[in-house]
Amino acid sequence: xxxxxxxxxxxxxxxxxxxxxxxxxxxxxxxxxxxxxxxxxxxxxxxxxxxxxxxxxxxxxxxxxxxxxxxxxxxxxxxxxxxxxxxxxxxxxxxxxxxxxxxxxxxxxxxxxxxxxxxxxxxxxxxxxxxxxxxxxxxxxxxxxxxxxxxxxxxxxxxxxxxxxxxxxxxxxxxxxxxxxxxxxxxxxxxxx
Length: 193
Prior knowledge:
Blueprint: E1 28-33, E2 39-43, H1 45-59, E3 72-76, H2 80-92, E4 96-100, H3 103-112, E5 117-120, H4 129-138, E6 147-151, H5 156-164, E7 169-172, H6 178-189
Parallel strand pairs: 3-4, 3-5, 5-6, 6-7
Antiparallel strand pairs: 1-2
Helix pairs in contact: 3-4
């Protein structure tokens, strides 16, 4: 329960999901148009409560500093050679890596375990990296999870499709530099290099 000072009014509205531009705005679950034409943001009480609890834990110094624990990355890659190579340099950079052999395997692991980021190929059996990213963004508790797509698809259209699916970064394998992936992950997770 949440204690409030007073309830100012009660209205019935039709909530619309937020668009791609506002998808990652914290604590907002949708929007609605009031009778007077005003557009309002609908806040997620659950998310706000989680933020309040987190702030309380941090202020009480009971939360473990993120820099003190290895961040857990889900690596979704169907090619064994690429999977072994990417896992090796992610672990060398200090990340704990869990492997998924395709998109469906990645999704099953995401709904069972907590991860700090996802690194995914695009062309995979059962579920592509685009589809995986869209599923991640459709689940409220995963909406802010950093997703990095690493793929051989390098056209502008592919990149646009990747970003529209909700990816935070789109890296191409042609001339791939592992340092770019590590720097990107460090930036997205707030981890110091």
